[in-house]
Specification:
Blueprint lengths: L5 H18 L5 H27 L3 H35 L11
Helix pairs in contact: 2-3
Amino acid sequence: MVTAIFTTIIGFALIAVALIAVFFSPYRHWLGFMCAGMLFWGLIEGIRFGVHNVFQISIAYSYLAAISTAMLGLIAFLLFADNRAQKAMADRRYIEHTPVYEDE
């Protein structure tokens, strides 16, 4: 059961005020990075929980498996993005130029 004591309410209120202050500041884009980091850590925790319960291994090894899986996924994503960027650069490099004639 969650207890809402006064210090907990003050802590959550201060976090909310800080998030609102960052939202209205010029550093608003950092909120996206922060949310992405929280989602990434949630993914790692989900994988760790699944590995820990399915294979009945220690928490340290389940964290190692989860982080390794996440890093493999990140490497695959970066290789895919690099492949797309290389194809886009090759397409830009080999644009066929046709002469433009001025109308007389």
